[in-house]
Amino acid sequence: MNETLIIGRKATRKNILVSFIAFIFYGLIGGIGTGGLLTFLTPLNRSICIFIGIIAFFVTMLIVVPLATITDYLEINPIFINYYVYKGYFQMLLETINLIIGKQTYPQKQINLNDIKNIELSYEPISMLWAQKGYKIKLLFQYKLYMSF
Predict the structure, then answer these.
(1) How far apart are CA 103 and CA 91, in angstroms?
(2) Which 3 state secondary structure label does DSSP give 48?
(3) I want to staple 31 with a disulfide (CB 3.0 to 4.6 A). Which of 42, 53, 78, 129 is the partner?
(4) If DSSP states are collapsed to H, E and C, what string results for 67-115?
(5) What angle do the packed helices 24-41 and 46-69 form, to 10 degrees?
């Protein structure tokens, strides 16, 4: 059995590209809005305002795309359980850049399946956006006790 089970959503280059295309509207709002406000409110040259608007577009995309693409997930293969978790925006941004350049990602926690005695699976209901009901999955691992003399 050489299958891999993924719980969650593993980010790929394709996901990043799809998120970039899906959120390009937000980037345009950020860029055009910033350029327009600067043109209207400041005595800066129009070409400088356009340049700052372009920078604002890319900054907006650098904020939105990692937040939409990178999520925590579990990868279970025949030997290990690999846990990938991203705490904070900068880890998400770094993971996005690593995926784009093709760098291999490493799990934050790796558990050998032979060391596990029991796995308890449970869930708890949570409230999500727009009054939706979701569920948070909880996994509890009980390890085998190894004693060496």
Answers:
(1) 14
(2) helix
(3) 53
(4) HHHCCCEEEECCCEEEEECCCCHHHHHHHHHHHHHCCCCCCCEEEEHHH
(5) 150
**Phi first, then psi: what are they for 96, rounded to 5°?**
-60, -45
DSSP run (H or E) holding 123:
strand 116-127
| d(C-alpha 6, C-alpha 24), whole Å | 29
Instruction: Give pLDDT, residue 149.
Output: 60
Between CA 11 and CA 28 the distance in angstroms is 24
Grouping H, G, I as helix, E, B as strand and the rest as coil, residue 144 is: coil
Query: Distance between CA atoms of 85 and 91, rounded to whole angstroms?
Result: 9
pTM of the model: 0.73
Residue 58 has pLDDT above 70, yes or no: yes
pLDDT tens per residue, range 77-127: 989 999 999 989 999 999 999 999 999 888 999 998 888 888 898 999 988
Contact indicator for 74, 108 with CB cutoff of 8 Å:
no
Mean pLDDT of the chain: 87
Residue 94: the pLDDT is 92
CA angle at residue 136 from 131 to 139, to 5 degrees? 175
